[in-house]
C-alpha cells in the first residue's frame, strides 16, 4: 500500500476534525486501521491510534506518523477508566530489557510494585530506567522492543492493585 | 551535504528553515511540544517528533530531548533558528560531541562573538568603533575626571548589568555626583558586583546592522545593511534595507574592518553586527548575533540571495558563492512583524485564528508560521508572520506596505496590524530617519495619527 | 491503494453533515470504511462554520459591503409576499421625474397600469424610461431622486390589482 | 493623474490592478456580475457596482453597463485587464467619447497591432521577421510552385480562419494536392471566403514573447522576454523569464526592430509581441497583444519593475521612468497558473473553496483572485491564482516552485496543481528547452511521471 507519512498524518487530522471513530483502509493484504475511542461531547483534542496493522516493518516514517498524532495527548482515554497508562517521560529508544540477553522487565500479567523498572528509554547514549508509579498488574505493552518513542507516548497499561 | 535536518525551533522561523531545506533537497524533521502538535512547521516537515510539554524549558530548550530526537530520526544536522538555543555554545558543543552538525558557528566562535564583553574586546582589537567610555571607575573623582573628557550626557553602567538593567543616564556633573554612590550600592545588591563604568549616551540613536556570511574556505562577505530603529522596549517591530543607510566613507571602512575581524577570528557562518548610530552618523559596535535574524528577509529582497540556504550550505562545508564584492542591492525593502498582541496595550493575544488571509501580489512576501484554524499557544513569543515588501524606492515600498497591511486579515486573535499601519502612515516615518525612540515618542504619543492620512 | 485524500475528506464532511455512522466503500480488493459513533455533536460544527462561511472581515469598507450584500440578490425578500418589486434593469442614475421642473411619475399610493413609466434611469447620457410590468398600486419608493442605482437594485414595491 | 479607476474585469487580474492603483494612491471601483458579489476583487476595491447578471455578455462584456458604472461612481479611467473587453477598439473608442481614459493603447493603435492581419503587415513593413509563406494562392499549381520554393512541411491556411481553425498541415506535394480542393470548399463553407495561403510549418516550435512598454513622450522600452511554450490547446499553463531566451544576435536585432516599429507607429502603452521560434532558433512574429498579459509577473520578478503601475502611469500621460536600456534582468522566474479544473480530464471544477492556503516565503509571489470560503462560479475562466517564483538560477527556481506547489492547499474544488507538479518534476522540463508540444507529447503521455522524482 502506498500510503506515505504525510498522507497518513493528514488522514488523522481529518479524522479528528470530522470526528470520526474509525477509518479502515485495505488493499490486498495490507490494512491500515485508525481508531479513536468515543468520548463525551466536549471537544477534547485527545486522539488515539490503535491497531495499525503494519504493512511494513515497524520503523520510522510509518510509526512517526502514528505516534505524532498520538502525542501531545495525555494518552489516557482508555477503554477501561480504571487502567493507568504509563507514558514516555522523554524521547528515545524503548527497550523492554536491560540487554539483548536479559529477560524483559515486565510482560502482560506481570505484577509490579511502585518503583519497579518497566523498561529502558535510551537517549543520548544514556539508559534511562522508567519506573512504575503504581503497584498493579501490567495488562498491555503498547510499544515493541527497539522502537523510537516520543515524549508522552503511551507505553504500558497497568491495572492498579485493589 | 546533509541528508536530514532537524529544526530545533517552531513558528515562522521553523517554517522558513524547512522551506530552505526542501529547496535544497534535504529531508526535514520538525520537533514540537505537546501544544504545537498541529502547528504549521509540523505540517510542512517530512517527519515530526514530540519532544516535551508546552513549557519551553522542557521542550524547545531541552537539549537532551532535541539530541534524542535527532538520534531516533537519523538527522545529521540541527538548525537552531533564532531565539531558544540558537546562541547556546553549550548546545553547539553537545551537537558536536554527538556528531550532529550545528548549523551555525563553532562553539568557540559563538563564545568569542556571542558574548557581549568578549565581542567588545574583539571589536576593540580589530578597530571596530565602540562607544567612547571608561574602564571600571575607582571612585567618584575618577568618574568626574573621565566625564569632563567624554562630555555629557553619559550612561553610568554596572559592569555586572546588561539589557538596560543597572543603567543610569546622567546629564551633568552634579547628577553624576548624586547618582554615583547609590548606583554602586544597587550594583552590589543587584549583581553582586559594585563595579561601575561610564559610556557616552546617545539621545536619539539609530539601530543599524550589517549582515555578514562566511564559509570554511576563507571567504567572508558583507551582503548589506539593515535599519532596525523602530523598536518598542528593545523589541524590533519594523525593519528596512536599502543601500547607503550608513554615511558614505564610514560605511565602507566599517564593512572592511568587520569583514577583516571575522576572517581573522575564523568566523564561519551567518552573522549580524549591530551598531548604534549617533545623530552625526557615527557608528558604534553594540553586539553581534551569531544566528539568523528575524529581519533577514529584507536583505534577501534587495539582494536576491537566500541567506538561510547559504547558511546551511556553508555549515555543510560548501563554498560561499557570493563574491567578496556582492552585486549592488536593488531597491528598498521593509518588513513588518505581525504579532498576536493588542495594538494598544501590547498584551499578548493567544487563541484560535479563525480566519487568515495573507496579502499577495507584486513585491510582497509573507513568512508566516500559522494558518486559518490553528491555535496560537500562550507559551511562546507572539510573532505570527512577517510581511516583507520590495519596491524600487522607499516611498513606493511604503505605499506597497500600506496596501499589504490593508489586505492582511487575521481574526480570532488581536494583532498589531493597526499599530504597523500607524507607523507606516506617520509623516515622520515617510520623511525619516527615525531614532529608536521614534515609536514611543512619536507614534504612541500621537493621539490620532490615522488622521494624518489624506 | 490510491487513496484520494480530498475525496476521503469530502466523504468525511458529508458524513458529519448528514450524520451518518458508517460508510464502507469496496472496489475490487480495496475497502474503505469510515465510522462515527453518534454523539451530541454541537462542538464539532464550530469548525465547519469557521472554514466554510467566514464572516465578512470587518474592515472592508462598510458602504461597499452593505451595497454588495444588497446587490446580486433577487432583492425581494419582501415582508408581504404579494408585493411585486421593480428592480433596476440597468445601472445608472435614478430620476423620479422627466426633468427637475416636472412632477414625479409616481408616488406612494399612485395607481399604475402595465407599461406606465415609473422612473427614468440615465446611463451614458441616455434617459431610459422604466415601465411597470404590472398594474397596481405603488406602496413604496425605495430610492431617492438623483441617486445612482446598480443592476438589480430594488426601486419600487407595487401591490398588483386584485 | 487619475482620481478613480474603474476595473472592468474580475478575478486575479482585477485584484492585481486594484493593488497597483492602491499603491499609486488612486481610488478604485470594482464592477461585478450578480454571482460575483462576494468575489475578492469586490472586497478589495474602495467601491463596487453590480453591472448585470452572471452571463459575461450582459455584465463584463456589456459596454453601456461599464460606462454607466464609471459615470455614477465618478471614475475617470477604466482598466480593462486581459480578456473581456481588453482588446476591443470599440470599447476604447466609447471610453474616449465619454471622456474616460482607457488604460491601454489608442483605438487606432489597437486596430493596427491588435488585428492579426494588420499587425503582420506592420511587421513586414518594419522588418520584423514573419513565417515564410505566400499571399492568396490562385490555384493548386501556384500552391505547388510556392511549396517547392518554401519546402515542406507547410500549413495550408484559410485567409478567413484563425486560432487553429481552417488549418491543414501538409508534408509533401501529394498531400498538398489531395488537400487543396477540400480545404477550399471548407474555407468557403466555414468562413464565406475560399482564399487559401501557405506558411511554413514548424514541427516543434517554442513560444517566446517580448514585453514592451511605451509612453506618450517617444520612449519605447523592451523590458524582457518570456518563454511560454508550456501550453495545452493554445492555453499557456506555465511561463518563464530569464535573460538570453532568444539566441544572441537575433535577439538584439529583434528587439531593435520591434522597438522601432512601435515608436514609428505611435504605440503608447504596455504590449507584448509573440514569436514562434523554430528548432534552429529563428524567431517569427506571430501576433501582438495590446494589453497586460497573464504572465507579466515573471518579467516583474526578474526586473523589479511594476508593469501595471507603469501602464497606468503612461496612460495618464506620465513619462516612462524605465531607461531605453533597462537594467539587466536578475535570476530566473517561473509562473504556474492554478486553475479550478480536473488535473487529468481538464474539466472545469467550479464550486465553493472550503480551504485555501497559499504558499509563502523567499522568492514566492502569489497573485490570487480567491479566498477560503469564496465560490468559483461556472461562468468564467478557471484561473484561481498564479504562483510565481524567483531564484538565482533555473534549477533553483524549479526547486522553489516544487516547494511552493507542495505548500499550496486548495480544497472544495479540484485544481491543476498535480499537473503543474508533474510538469515541474519532469526530467525533460529540467533539461529544457521545450516546444509547445511538450505538454501533450511528453507530460500527458507519461504514465507515471511522478516516479521520476528521487
Write a structural description.
The complex is a heterotetramer, with two copies of chain A (162 residues) and two copies of chain B (454 residues). With 162 residues, chain A is an alpha+beta fold. In chain A, 14% of the residues lie in helices and 31% in strands. Chain A has two helices and ten strands, in the order H-E-E-H-E-E-E-E-E-E-E-E. In chain A, the strands form three sheets. Chain A has a four-stranded antiparallel beta sheet with strand order 3-10-8-5, with no helix packed on it. The longest helix of chain A is centred in the first third of the chain and has 13 residues. Chain B is an alpha+beta fold and 454 residues long. In chain B, helix 5 crosses helix 6 and helix 6 crosses helix 9. In chain B, 54% of the residues are buried.
Summarize the structure.
The complex is a heterotetramer, with two copies of chain A (162 residues) and two copies of chain B (454 residues). Chain A is α+β, with helices and mostly antiparallel strands and 162 residues long.
Amino acid at each position: 500500500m502506498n500510503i506515505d507519512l504525510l498522507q497518513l498524518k493528514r488522514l488523522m487530522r481529518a479524522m479528528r476534525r470530522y470526528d470520526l471513530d474509525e477509518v479502515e483502509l485495505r488493499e490486498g493484504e495490507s490494512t491500515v486501521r485508525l481508531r479513536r475511542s468515543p468520548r463525551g461531547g466536549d471537544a477534547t483534542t485527545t486522539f488515539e491510534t490503535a491497531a495499525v496493522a503494519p504493512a511494513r516493518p515497524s520503523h520510522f516514517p510509518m510509526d512517526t506518523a502514528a505516534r505524532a498524532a498520538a502525542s501531545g495527548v495525555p494518552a489516557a482515554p482508555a477503554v477501561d477508566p480504571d487502567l493507568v497508562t504509563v507514558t514516555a517521560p522523554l524521547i528515545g529508544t524503548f527497550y523492554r530489557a536491560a540487554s539483548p540477553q536479559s529477560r524483559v522487565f515486565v510482560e502482560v500479567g506481570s505484577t509490579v510494585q511502585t518503583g519497579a523498572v518497566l523498561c529502558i528509554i535510551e537517549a543520548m547514549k544514556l539508559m534511562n530506567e522508567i519506573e512504575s508509579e503504581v503497584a498493579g498488574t501490567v495488562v498491555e505493552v503498547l510499544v515493541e522492543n527497539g522502537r523510537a518513542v516520543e515524549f508522552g507516548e503511551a507505553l504500558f497499561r497497568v491495572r492498579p492493585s485493589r | 551535504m546533509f541528508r536530514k535536518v532537524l529544526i530545533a525551533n517552531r513558528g515562522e522561523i521553523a517554517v522558513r528553515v524547512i522551506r530552505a531545506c526542501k529547496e535544497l533537497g534535504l529531508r526535514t524533521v520538525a520537533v514540537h511540544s505537546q501544544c504545537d502538535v498541529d502547528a504549521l512547521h509540523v505540517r510542512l516537515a517530512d517527519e515530526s517528533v514530540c519532544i516535551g510539554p508546552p513549557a519551553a524549558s522542557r521542550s524547545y530548550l531541552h537539549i537532551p530531548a532535541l539530541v534524542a530526537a535527532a538520534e531516533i530520526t537519523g538527522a545529521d544536522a540541527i538548525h537552531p533558528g533564532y531565539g531558544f538555543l540558537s546562541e547556546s555554545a553549550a548546545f553547539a558543543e553537545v551537537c558536536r560531541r554527538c556528531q550532529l552538525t550545528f548549523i551555525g558557528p563553532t562553539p568557540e566562535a559563538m563564545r568569542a562573538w556571542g558574548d557581549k564583553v568578549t565581542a567588545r574586546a574583539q571589536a576593540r582589537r580589530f578597530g571596530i568603533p565602540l562607544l567612547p567610555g571608561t574602564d571600571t571607575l575607582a571612585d567618584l573623582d575618577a568618574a568626574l575626571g573621565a566625564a569632563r573628557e567624554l562630555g555629557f550626557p553619559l550612561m553610568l553602567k554596572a559592569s555586572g548589568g546588561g539589557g538596560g538593567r543597572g543603567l543610569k543616564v546622567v546629564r551633568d556633573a552634579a547628577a553624576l555626583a548624586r547618582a554615583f554612590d547609590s548606583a554602586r550600592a544597587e550594583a552590589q545588591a543587584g549583581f553582586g558586583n559594585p563595579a561601575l563604568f561610564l559610556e557616552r549616551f546617545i539621545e536619539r540613536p539609530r539601530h543599524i546592522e550589517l549582515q555578514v556570511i562566511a564559509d570554511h574556505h576563507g571567504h567572508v562577505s558583507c551582503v548589506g545593511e539593515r535599519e532596525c530603529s523602530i523598536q518598542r522596549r528593545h523589541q524590533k517591530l519594523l525593519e528596512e534595507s536599502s543601500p547607503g543607510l550608513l554615511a558614505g566613507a564610514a560605511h565602507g571602512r566599517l564593512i572592511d574592518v568587520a569583514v577583516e575581524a571575522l576572517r581573522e577570528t575564523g568566523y564561519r557562518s551567518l552573522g549580524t553586527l549591530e551598531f548604534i548610530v549617533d545623530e552625526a552618523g557615527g557608528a558604534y559596535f553594540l553586539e553581534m548575533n551569531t544566528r539568523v535574524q528575524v529581519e533577514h528577509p529584507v536583505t534577501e529582497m534587495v539582494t536576491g540571495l537566500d541567506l538561510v540556504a547559504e547558511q546551511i550550505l556553508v555549515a555543510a562545508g560548501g563554498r560561499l558563492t557570493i563574491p567578496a564584492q556582492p552585486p549592488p542591492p536593488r531597491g528598498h525593502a521593509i518588513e513588518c512583524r505581525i504579532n498576536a498582541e493588542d495594538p494598544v496595550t501590547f498584551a499578548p493575544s493567544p487563541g484560535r485564528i479563525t480566519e487568515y488571509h495573507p496579502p499577495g501580489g507584486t513585491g510582497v512576501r509573507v513568512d508566516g508560521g500559522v494558518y486559518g484554524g490553528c491555535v496560537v499557544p500562550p507559551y511562546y513569543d507572539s510573532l505570527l508572520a512577517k510581511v516583507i515588501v520590495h519596491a524600487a524606492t522607499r516611498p513606493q515600498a511604503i505605499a506597497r506596505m500600506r496596501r499589504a497591511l490593508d489586505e492582511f486579515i487575521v481574526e480570532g486573535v488581536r494583532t498589531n496590524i493597526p499599530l504597523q499601519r500607524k507607523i507606516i502612515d506617520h509623516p515622520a516615518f515617510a520623511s525619516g530617519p527615525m531614532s529608536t525612540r521614534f515609536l514611543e515618542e512619536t507614534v504612541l504619543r500621537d493621539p490620532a495619527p490615522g488622521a494624518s492620512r489624506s
